[in-house]
Amino acid sequence: MQILDKVREDVREMKRSAENAEFWMGVAEREELKTARKFIEKLEMLTDLCVWVENRVIDFEDKKKKSDDDDEEEEKEGEDEFEFLNLTELLQEWDNEDPKVCTDEEQNDLQKQILLRNLNAYEVAILIIQAQGLDGADNKNCYLKVLEKAYIFLIKFVRNNKENQFILVKHIDLFMEDLEYGVHSWELIAEIFKNSELLITFNVIPHLKKVIKLIDSLPKETQKKTTMLSFLTYFMKLGDSPRKELQTFICMEVTSVIRKNCDHLFVGDLGLKDLHLYILEMKNAYSEFMTDDRYLQEMQIPPELSYTIEYIKLLAVSGEGKNAATESRAQEKLPIEDILANMKLADFCYPLKNAIVYFMDSIYFDIEKDVSDENIQKMFEFIEEISKDIKNFVEIQTRMKTQ
In this structure, which of 76, 108, 164, 173 has its CB flanked by the most CB atoms within 10 Å? Predict the structure, then answer.
């Protein structure tokens, strides 16, 4: 009950402020920045509630006492409070390259998601998004940082929660208007449809077309391009069941000749030369790690190579469940001869090798079409490459245990 009362009080206060305050207009005045900072802190609190945390501790500090203490502190500290509240951070440039919010290891807290749904807490974030206060704003960065927190809360609010997904699906067009601002509006849309029956009842094709066009327009050097591409896989499966029509549509769209900047595979002599240079670059950057324990080091992969890895995984997902149309297209884009060459050149870049193994399994091994004798022979060569990696890894682990 204490949690319920605390959250209910905070949500009511946030709704009143969202309806009346003008912090989203980007006014760089101290009071407006303080309002924005409070919103960010409250949104972070709501976001945290959506995530399962064992032995959670919630601060129920007396609000009036805290307010009185704050007033007294303001009189004493003066300008120091400005730094203490990190208000200057709201004036700094907003980062458009944020990674995705959710990880596979993170679990949603279903009870807290239900509590927040019953309190209509999501309406606060919707109000902020609807404000769309960038036109004529004095400080766009302030609004964008509040907007970002609103989206992150909604992402955690709908994650693996069918009822919450159904509530927010009616706002899809609103979220689509914010695609240019980072990745979180698209991540929210992807989470709404992930493993949801909405994939059956809702027409996502127009939205997918718009997003793929945007992805195609982004430079390969940007993290945003890679991150946005990765969310397309959410639309191709409902649980463990592939959605063939969406697999086919997405595969054909991202491999279409009209997409000039989607395809980035290492094929042919020039492509393999590029991959060789990327691997050399990684080796040079991490030469101090190029010993037997390199398998344990966390690698920083060049953004263009990261994009290729996500692109290969996307094509692999499109072939799951035996889809002849996507198998054929993916095989055209990445022939088995080039796959073998990629595996040999990839060396210690195991994220790339993992993507290639996944691709081989769904596009060449477990497929709807008949497998040619030539490809069967190439498959044996591929398996031999994997065996070499496994053997090397076992040898290294054995030596480390004996040291």
Answer: 164
- Model pLDDT, residue 70: 54
- Predicted pLDDT at 399: 75
Q: Which residue has the tokens 């995984």?
A: 313
**3-class secondary structure per residue, the chain:** CHHHHHHHHHHHHHHHHHHHCCHHHCCCCHHHHHHHHHHHHHHHHHHHHCECCCCCCCCCCCHHHHHHHHHHHHHHHCCHHHHHCCHHHHHCCCCCCCCCCCCCCCCECHHHHHHHHHCCCHHHHHHHHHHCCCCCCCCHHHHHHHHHHHHHHHHHHHCCCHHHHHHHHHHHHHHHCCCCCCCHHHHHHHHHHCCCCHHHHCCCHHHHHHHHHHHHHCCCCCHHHHHHHHHHHHHCEECCEECHHHHHHHHHHHCCCCCCCCCCCCCHHHHHHHHHHHHHHHHHHCHHHCCHHHHHCCCCCCHHHHHHHHHHHHHHHHCCCCCHHHHHHHHHHCCHHHHHHHHHHHCCCHHHHHHHHHHHHHHHHCCCCCCCHHHHHHHHHHHHHHHHHHHHHHHHHHHHHHC
Query: According to the model, what pLDDT value does residue 74 have?
Result: 52
Distance in Å from the first CA to the final CA of the chain? 55
Cα–Cα dist 30/96, whole Å: 25
Please state the φ and ψ torsions of residue 108, each to the nearest 5 degrees: -80, 150
Q: Which residues face 108 on adjacent strands? A: 51
The C-alpha angle with vertex 214 and arms to 96 and 307, in degrees rounded to 5, equals 70
Q: Are 315 and 265 in contact (CB under 8 A)?
A: no
* Residues of the chain under the 50 pLDDT cut: 60, 62-66, 78, 82-84, 290, 292, 294-296
- Six-digit token string for 186: 């698209």
Give the Cβ contact number of residue 399 at 10 Å: 11
